[in-house]
Amino acid sequence: MSKRTWIWIALVAVVVVAQLVPVSRENPPVETELVAEEPVRGLLRRACYDCHSNETQWPWYAYVAPVSWLVAHDVEEAREHLNFSTWNRYDLDDQLDLLEEMGEEVTEREMPLQIYLSLHSEARITTAERKQIADWAEGLRSSTPPPTPPNP
Predict the structure, then answer these.
(1) pLDDT: is 81 or 16 the higher one?
(2) What is the CA radius of gyration of the chain?
(3) pLDDT tier at 18, thresholds 50, 70, 90
(4) In angstroms, rounded to a whole number, what is the distance separating the alpha carbons of residues 106 and 129?
(5) CA neighbours within 13 Å on the CB side: how many for 56?
(6) Dihedral in degrees, nearest 10, Cα atoms 42, 46, 51, 54
(7) pLDDT exceeding 90 applies to what percent of the chain?
(8) 3-state helix/strand/coil string of 23-41
């Protein structure tokens, strides 16, 4: 066999063995949700929930290594940063900070990530929809009473 054939056999073997590396694609139970009325609720579900909630819809490529490793890592990192399914775990300060950051990220087109949008066209949001999300986040922030400072 030629050298090229051996390289292909080795490459296929590596890909097959890579499938044996376990990847967590867990969707823990939803504890609570951020309160949002339509159309914002639908926008958040469509553009954000796949990574930022415990309701991830795992696509077929999330089951094929090495891409599965990247997808699982990205979802884990996104949930650590903001998880709509565990909104109740954040204290008031964190909730207010997350709402502010959410508005900024969406307005500045940093979220949803371009790489995600290249595979999930349904998550694309228009400029008007971005403004709806940012306005909603700011409205929720301004209607929430400020946290009470601790007693000295």
Answers:
(1) 81
(2) 20
(3) low
(4) 9
(5) 22
(6) 50
(7) 64
(8) CCCCCCCCCCCCCCCCCHH
**How far is it, in rounded angstroms, from Cα 80 to Cα 109?**
20
Kindly tell me if the per-residue pLDDT of 100 is higher than 60.
Answer: yes
Looking at residue 12, its pLDDT comes to 73
Half-sphere exposure of 113 (CA within 13 A, CB side): 11
Q: Mean pLDDT over residues 24-44, rounded?
A: 90
Q: Per-residue confidence at 60, pLDDT binned at 50, 70, 90?
A: very high
Residue 18 CB contacts under 8 Å (≥ 6 apart), including other chains: 65, 66
d(CA 72, CA 136): 29
Spatial separation of the C-alpha atoms in residues 97 and 63, rounded to whole Å: 34
The H-assigned helical ranges of the chain are 3-18, 40-47, 49-52, 67-81, 92-107, 114-119, 127-143
- Identify the residue whose tokens are 């009325």: 37
Contact assessment for residue 118 and residue 131, using Cβ atoms and an 8 Å cutoff: no
**Residue 100 half-sphere exposure toward CB, CA atoms < 13 A:** 8
Amino acid 97: pLDDT? 95
50 vs 75: CA distance, rounded Å: 8
